[in-house]
Specification:
Helices cover about 30% and strands about 20% of the residues. It is built from 19 helices and 26 strands. The longest helix is centred in the first third of the chain and has 27 residues, at about 60-85.
Length: about 675
């Protein structure tokens, strides 16, 4: 829970008690919108031996209805929470944590934008989201015992669109901006999400492979549970929509994967797409100055419904807006926030169109919509085309301002309204080297060194990231080490690599740990001696692996965000004390130290923070690292020159996301930890 919201909550609770006494205020809320008459759907849902739904429909809208039904069967809890956040009612389910989402939804005006711009979507896209909403509503009506929040259903197409509006800015750093400003601090100068939110993606052409096969590896890193965890599906429509991949709760189509002819992976990129403005306010903070004129600061009181024990209480909160965007008032003044894609709802249209693109030309034409404001796309197809596209909706900013800092808010010279064209983004297409890759790193490392982009070719005002990751260093080193054809086996060795590069920040960190003065500290000296034997891999074969992984995890967030590393000695002390307290030794086998736990499964899992076999974890009460993020849904897609597309996939748990009694709750976990695949029946 963010500190800023916790303070808001407790200072407001007395007000809430006066307003409603001890009643449950959420029960008095307005009725949900009318979803309109139900439409009969021609849809069939088949599940394969792993419980993965294969959804068949007469039309695309029928398929979307089936997606909602099947996803609700597996994960109704997370779907309900996503919908509650869109309606400003997540706090009534999740307490303070949910109320944070509600506040942000009001602040960013997600629902109002969805309502105002809904008709920007094409009729068939509106039909798609309305059918998906109907599917969720029908499921809730048939399963009333699963509903935790009364009055949330029926769901409308506008709810689904508002969910995209709300969540999109958080993939390029909105949480860090809001957190800082609400805590009375200036926002960070660097961009990107607050926590490790990574991914890998690789493609190799048929010409570079040893068997005339183009290959794509989809390897998105997301939390293993919650509202942005992957759920696998395969869809087939009589209108030509055939796609296999994965999606998030609340999305009426796969967000990544492949159709018969092409496919893509997404990796989080971190360009500077959020601008913060210092407003000049009048004395009572009701007006702001812009171009010499005083304009009214829009102010609106909202009520956040927050569960506190058995009660749901209303917490009052003011939200503000200027012409720039959302405004936060704190002790430092008034700050407006403007982000790329503000006011646009067409992201949902673009993803749908990408699903149905039939070739590279069509796919690029859809990408030129520029409705998906950020995230790398790594592409491959049956014709042998591959590419890395640093997709970002770059604001058309004027030179001469410090766009990474806080901007003057009293001049329209900083108030951009347009964007750079899509063909201005960094992209590497069909390189002679025959491979492309990305691991949340600068786009200037994407293929062989002599074909990489040059940072000097892109204006600094664009705010293109300069981040590097250990995963980037490793894939560059490993691809560079293959002189001949890149076989499937070689590609998978790269994907599941568990090494750390001495050229990465990991090398700097280990050097700092080994340089700690341990004179008079024999336990720290013993840790250094063990660390010197480490082979720089987290494969479970060395005595120092657990110590090294724990040390890497201790600075994982700093490394991901590009922050300065913490002093080494306190981190070394923390890790040594924790290992000794839980295990009584430093040379704990990694398989004992790092586990995958799900239902009755308790399995060793290898890899570590920022390895290509990425494993992020929380520390359990028994001192073990329990994986909760990183490698999750993974897909290997292959287009042989003389045959149809084939794909394999694996999920860290299984298809039944929340159904503990299902045989598919954790049936893929043993294969996942063994780094094995299952076939996708496409």
């Amino acid at each position: 829970m963010p500190r800023w919201f916790t303070a808001l909550f407790w200072t407001s609770i007395a007000v809430a008690a006066v307003v409603v006494g001890l009643s449950s205020w959420d029960a008095l809320s307005a009725s949900p919108p009318d979803a309109g008459p139900a439409v009969k759907r021609a849809v069939r849902i088949d599940r394969d031996e792993w419980g993965v739904p294969h959804i068949h429909g007469r039309t695309d809208a029928d398929v979307a209805y089936g997606i909602a039904q099947a996803h609700a069967e597996d994960d109704f809890r997370n779907l309900e929470e996503v919908l509650a956040a869109v309606r400003g009612r997540a706090g009534a389910i999740l307490g303070e944590e949910g109320a944070t989402l509600d506040y942000v939804s009001h602040l960013l005006d997600a629902r109002a934008i969805a309502d105002a711009r809904y008709n920007d979507l094409s009729p068939d896209t509106r039909a798609l989201v309305e059918a998906y909403a109907q599917g969720l509503t029908d499921y809730a009506r048939r399963h009333p015992g699963e509903i935790r929040l009364q009055g949330l259903f029926p769901v409308t197409g506008r709810d689904i669109v508002a969910g995209f509006v709300l969540r999109s800015p958080f993939f390029f750093g909105m949480d860090r901006v809001l957190g800082a400003l609400n805590e009375g601090r200036l926002p960070p100068r660097d961009s990107g999400p607050a926590d490790e939110r990574g991914s890998n993606a690789f493609a190799v052409t048929a010409a570079r492979s040893d068997d005339a096969t183009t290959r794509l590896i989809i390897n998105s890193h997301q939390p293993w549970e919650g509202g942005v965890t992957w759920w696998e599906l395969v869809v087939h429509s009589g209108e030509g929509w055939d796609f296999a991949g994965a999606t998030f709760p609340g999305a009426p189509f796969p967000l990544l994967g492949h159709n018969r002819n092409l496919g893509w992976a997404n990796t989080v990129n971190r360009p500077d797409l959020i601008d913060v403005y210092k407003l000049v306010l009048n004395e009572d903070r009701t007006q702001y100055r812009l171009d010499g004129k005083w304009l009214p600061l829009e102010a609106r009181r909202v009520w956040l419904r927050v569960r506190l024990g058995p009660l749901v209480l209303p917490i009052p909160r003011m939200v503000y807006r200027s012409k720039h965007g959302a405004v936060i008032l704190n002790d430092l003044g008034g700050f407006a926030i403007r982000h790329t894609g503000i006011g646009d709802v067409r992201q949902i249209e673009q993803y749908y169109r990408l699903n149905k693109a039939r070739n590279f030309a069509e796919w690029k034409a859809v990408m030129a919509m520029q409705a998906v404001p950020a995230t790398n796309f790594l592409y491959a197809d049956k014709e042998g085309h591959i590419g890395l596209f640093y997709n970002a909706l770059f604001p058309d900013r004027r030179p001469g301002f410090d766009w990474k800092g806080v901007l003057p808010g009293d001049t329209s010279a900083t108030l951009w309204s347009g964007y750079k064209p899509w063909d201005a983004i960094p992209m590497v297409v069909d390189p002679r080297a025959g491979w492309v890759g990305n691991s949340n790193n600068t786009p200037t490392v994407a293929t062989a060194p002599d074909e990489n982009l040059q940072a000097a070719d892109f204006a600094p005002v664009l705010g293109i990231e300069t981040y590097t990751t250990n995963r980037m260093h490793r894939f560059a080193e490993l691809f560079g080490g293959v002189n001949g054809p890149i076989s499937r086996a070689a590609l998978l060795r790269i994907k599941f690599d568990k090494g750390y590069s001495r050229a990465s920040v990991a090398g700097q960190w280990i050097a700092a740990v080994l340089a700690v003065d341990t004179n008079g500290k024999p336990d720290l000296a013993a840790a250094q001696a063990l660390l010197r034997t480490w082979d720089w891999t987290a494969d479970g074969r060395g005595r120092a692996d657990s110590l090294a992984v724990a040390l890497m995890a201790s600075v994982g967030r700093e490394v991901y965000r590009g922050d300065a590393l913490s002093p080494a000695e306190p981190k070394l002390r923390e890790v040594v004390d924790a290992l000794m307290a839980s295990f009584g030794r430093l040379d704990v086998p990694l398989g004992d130290f790092q586990r995958l736990r799900r239902g009755g499964a308790d399995l060793p899992v290898f890899g570590g923070p920022d390895t290509l076999r990425a494993i992020y974890a929380s520390v359990a009460p028994d001192g073990r690292r329990v994986a909760n993020n990183g490698d999750g849904f993974i897909m290997l897609v292959e287009w042989p020159n003389d045959g149809a597309v084939k794909s394999r996939s694996i999920h860290q748990f299984g298809a039944a996301t929340i159904r503990r009694n299902s045989p598919h709750y954790a049936d893929q976990s043993p294969m996942f930890v063994r780094e094995e695949w299952k076939n996708v029946d496409f």
